[in-house]
Design brief:
- With 470 residues, the protein is α+β, with helices and mostly antiparallel strands.
- The chain folds into three domains: 70 residues, no CATH class; 203 residues, no CATH class; 92 residues.
- Helix content is 31%, strand content 9%.
- The strands form two sheets. A five-stranded antiparallel sheet has the order 6-3-4-5-7. Strands 1-2-8 form a three-stranded antiparallel sheet.
- β4 and β5 form a beta hairpin.
- α12 packs antiparallel against α13.
Length: 470
């Protein structure tokens, strides 16, 4: 056999080899890109990789951040190279994947606020105060409506001008804290760094931890998600979900005792567990039994059908597959209605060495709430508007004003707040605001006394992220 290799044949073979290599590299590259993109998808994170509560996946789909992918919070919006470097650090989750995660799950992989939250919510631009209107319905036969209007001090412009108030004061100032709880329900120690560089530490006067135990905890810099912790996977109070269903017409107020019947069904949530089919069967039976017991008149049958449909959706969304879990297992630290939230620190019992408490003053973060009741009296506004620059009495400037304000009431208060001043919760009087009084606020006490000497345990380690987030 005679083999002759000419220049033309050699060139053709070389070109073929180069083309084949390039095609191979393109195929491998395309496969790698597709694999990388899939590994960053919600489907991979929630089902292929992490064994999370199935309810958390559903909660994310209906939350305010439904269009924000898991990796955008848990890995941050970083360059591809940095994300590739961060991926291996999640290998510590492998053990949880093998033996199962402790319930309820708390994330230890959230990136610093600057890499996640602040990539969308730019804190340095001008923001203004916002108005929230909350609608509630009573459990009387008519499901009477009440509306609470509240101005939230979220304005960053006021903070930049030097005002020492506002919800987002915590963004412009350095705050560190420790917590023995992964969900950070309890905060026994807080440190604030003032603009002049001095530091002030506050210790919970009623904490059961010793100074040594507190010192052993790792301090962390306060981040956006230490308060806004439920924006990714919200589990709202189902009673509030019922109020929203009535407000939007999904539940007809024409149905007698609509709110009372809804609350009675919500109170059965602890019995609704199991896989989706089991829960559906239990919910259908509970609703059918409640309908039979109610004996709704024929003229309200259509409203009854709307009620049953809405309550079925609400109960299924608020029930859990595993026993022992409910919406209460996932605290919402924004606000302070159902869980301590703000009162984890602003509770009247975190004192510094001088015996001064962390500011406990409602109007630091919001104006006085105004309640309008459909049946009954609402709240009465102060005769003097709550606005910047208004000179207030010295008593109003005390760090623990809410702790002592009831002891300060006297005839001079009537000049600004009207007459007569009487304590209560029924409205019709400035001191009887139903949005403030006559209810229990989780974790807040107005009876704690400052310790003889507030200890300031030394930090055990550096904070997990830069404290300054301006």
């Amino acid at each position: 056999m005679r083999i002759q290799i000419g220049r033309k044949a050699l060139m053709l073979g070389s070109v073929t080899t180069i083309v084949a290599v390039l095609v191979g590299l393109a195929v491998v590259g395309a496969a790698g890109i597709a694999g990388w993109e899939y590994s960053n998808s919600n489907a991979f994170c929630a089902t292929m990789c992490h064994d999370v509560h199935p309810e958390e996946i559903q909660a994310h789909k209906v939350g305010a951040h439904a269009r924000v992918n898991c990796v955008e919070c848990h890995m941050g919006r970083n360059s591809t190279l940095k994300l590739m470097a961060l991926k291996p650090t999640h290998a510590k989750e492998l053990w949880g994947m093998i033996v199962g995660y402790e319930r309820p799950i708390t994330s230890g992989t959230l990136r610093p606020s600057r890499e996640a939250c602040e990539s969308c919510h730019y804190p340095s631009v001008e923001h203004h105060d916002s108005v929230a209107v909350k609608v509630h319905y009573a459990t009387d036969a008519e499901s009477s409506e009440s509306r609470t209007r509240i101005v939230l001090h979220t304005g960053m412009d006021a903070i930049r001008q030097g005002y020492t108030k506002g919800i987002h004061w915590h963004i412009q100032n350095e705050v560190r804290f420790v917590s023995p709880d992964p969900q950070r329900r309890e905060i026994p120690w807080v440190e604030v760094r003032n603009p002049d560089g001095t530091k002030v530490t506050y210790t919970d006067a009623e904490t059961k931890l010793t100074a040594q135990q507190i010192a052993a905890l790792e301090p962390r810099a306060m981040a956006c998600y230490d308060c806004h912790n439920s924006v990714g996977h919200p589990f709202p109070n189902p009673a509030n979900t019922v109020d929203e269903a009535i407000r939007t017409g999904r539940i007809d107020r024409a149905l007698p005792d609509a709110k009372a019947r809804a609350v009675a069904l919500v109170n059965t949530l602890a019995d609704i567990t199991g896989d989706p089919k089991d829960r559906e069967a239990k919910v259908d039976k509970l609703i059918a039994d409640a309908t039979a017991k109610a004996g709704t008149p024929p003229e309200h049958k259509q409203a009854e059908q709307k009620f049953n449909k809405a309550m079925r959706e609400i109960l299924l969304a608020a029930s859990f597959q595993e026993k022992g879990f409910s919406w209460k297992s996932f605290p919402n630290h924004t606000g302070h209605a159902d869980t301590p939230g703000c009162f984890r620190c602003h509770d009247g019992k975190h004192y510094n060495a001088k015996g001064e408490a962390i500011r406990l003053q409602c109007t630091l973060c919001h104006a006085l709430p105004q309640v309008e009741r459909e049946k009954g009296k609402g709240s009465v506004a102060s005769l003097v508007p709550d606005k910047a620059g208004e000179k207030q009495p010295e008593s109003h400037q005390r760090p623990n004003f809410m702790h002592t304000h009831s002891d300060d009431v006297g005839p001079e208060c009537e000049k600004c707040h009207g007459t007569p001043l009487k304590h209560g919760k029924q409205g019709g009087n400035f001191c009887a605001n139903p949005a403030c009084h006559g209810r229990t606020w989780p974790a807040m006490t107005l009876t704690a006394e400052p310790p003889q000497k507030a200890e300031s345990p030394p930090p055990a380690a550096a904070p997990s992220e830069p404290a300054k987030k301006g």
